[in-house]
Amino acid sequence: MRAFTEVVDAGGFAAASRQMGLSRSHVNKLVINLEDSLGAQLLQRTTRKVTPTDTGLAFYERCRGILAAVSEAEAAVTQYQTNPKGTLRVNAPISFGTRYLAPILPEFLAQYPELQVELALNDRFIDPIEEGFDVTLRISARPTASSLIVHELSPAQRVFCAAPTYLQQQGIPDHPDQLKQHSCLHYGYLAPLNQWYLKGPEQTHTIRVQGNVCSNNGEVLRQAALKGLGITLLPTFMVGADLSSGRLQVVLSNYKSPAIAIYILYPVSKHLSAKVQLFTAFLQAQFGQEPQLVGEAGKN
Question: What angle do the packed helices 102-111 and 274-287 form, to 10 degrees?
Answer without folding.
Answer: 130
